[in-house]
Amino acid sequence: MKKLVIALVSLIAFAACTDNFVETNQNPYQISDDLLKQDFNLVGSPFSNMIFNLNGHQIEEDLCSDNWMGYMGTPTDFVGNVNNTTYYIRWNTYWDRVYGSVMSPAKQVIKLAADNNLPLFATWAKLIRIYAVSKLTGVHGPVIYSQYGTTANSIAYDKESDLYPLFFKQLDSIQTDLGANKEYTGFKKFDPSQYGGSIPRWQKLVNSLRLRLAMRISKVDPAMAKTEGEKALADPAGLIVANSDNFINSLNGNKIPVAQICYEWDDTRMGAVMESFLVGLKDGRISKYFAPMSNAALYADHPSVPYKGVRNGAYIKAKADHVPFSKVSEDFQTVQTRRNFTAAEVAFLKAEAGLRGWAGAGDPKTNYEEGIKLSFADWGAGGVDAYLADATSKPISYVDPIDARNNFTAASTITVAWNNADSNELKLEKIITQKYLNTFTNTQEAWVDFRRTGYPKIPHVAKNDSNNDWGVIPATEWIKRMPFVNAERNGNTAAVADAVSKMGTGAKDDIATRLWWDTGKANF
């Protein structure tokens, strides 16, 4: 089995200078703190790596949310075809990425910013920290946040119902600091995103992140969600509403992971769920996401549309069987950036907020259609007007020409065209389905939406290997969370036990326990 070996960019060492430092003894390959202080390098240099590590690679994403949500499927029979994709946990490393490559350097930046009277760099680090941990808590539930950095033998986890109010409070402070320094240009040299150090553009991300997190808790704490969502919608700094303000970060010279996994390792292919939706709905984004195939026998069920995907949790007998299926588009071979937050996502958030009666959200239909238009434009796809008007095309059932055990009947019967006469439930399904289709290459948030709302409607895994080792997922259910990592289970045992107790009566540190906001209750 090819295992991902990813070299994380090393953080600059912060070595303290001494009074009797002798210049002639300085290592010519080591940059001293005094030199780094020039142009704020000391506090600015870590941001490129911190932002790079907001996302994962093969183990954290492609063999987790990419597969669970049907964006991608693996043709490879990893560990005898019993692995994360079939609900038996083999890899669990996003925790280490966030703490080792975001939280740790952010803590250093915050201290150094205080020591060097550069408070806005501390503000920036705090925002990146919230962004990372808000993703991490969506994977595990309780996480170490407010107590991070303490030297106690056992470090307590934050309960989810305490974590989100803390996020919101800290976003208040961050937005205040940024709003008071809109003309500040100190970030420019160090900003790896397309924002180029612009404070007003970062402010839009703050509001958009607040809206995302408010919507995440909309079922478990609707009052707080409404308050925070309306605050985001009303803030004069605005939201990400144009593709030019999308939060897109550099990959520091690396190829986008999905292309490397697909073309260099042959370990991922188009997902069957994406085939079901994109082919069935006649979606023009399909050619921007995936590469067409030459073997017509493999897509005989829809011969005019040359794409074929691999089922989520598929039965895989031999790697060679499914390798001929659709790769990601060749265009991704040269992509060295990552979409983290788009205007289309914000439009879909506003559409749902409108259904929920949040002030300032606007008309759900207008926002839904705007989200689709923004997505098509962002991905360079054509035919959006005809797509929006299509009230007949529906997702198709899936046929695996290699192994019929992977076949499924489409669970969703939605069309694209908006109908004001539809129920809120059907409207929500359309909104979340289109949000899902837009979120290709940034799939963790789609997994959050699926657990929160039940949409989009996707098939269960074909092969379910869940058992008492990591938790049992019934045949009619889907994975709910990732367990805490073994290093925490073994080295912070009491805190892990306490964290599990914070997830509610009967909770276990397994893949079947719901997170706080995943209520399993009706959407309206």
From TrEMBL:
<keyword id="KW-0732">Signal</keyword>
<dbReference type="Pfam" id="PF12741">
    <property type="entry name" value="SusD-like"/>
</dbReference>
<keyword id="KW-0449">Lipoprotein</keyword>
<dbReference type="InterPro" id="IPR011990">
    <property type="entry name" value="TPR-like_helical_dom_sf"/>
</dbReference>
<protein>
    <submittedName>
        <fullName>SusD/RagB-like outer membrane lipoprotein</fullName>
    </submittedName>
</protein>
<dbReference type="InterPro" id="IPR024302">
    <property type="entry name" value="SusD-like"/>
</dbReference>
<feature type="signal peptide">
    <location>
        <begin position="1"/>
        <end position="15"/>
    </location>
</feature>
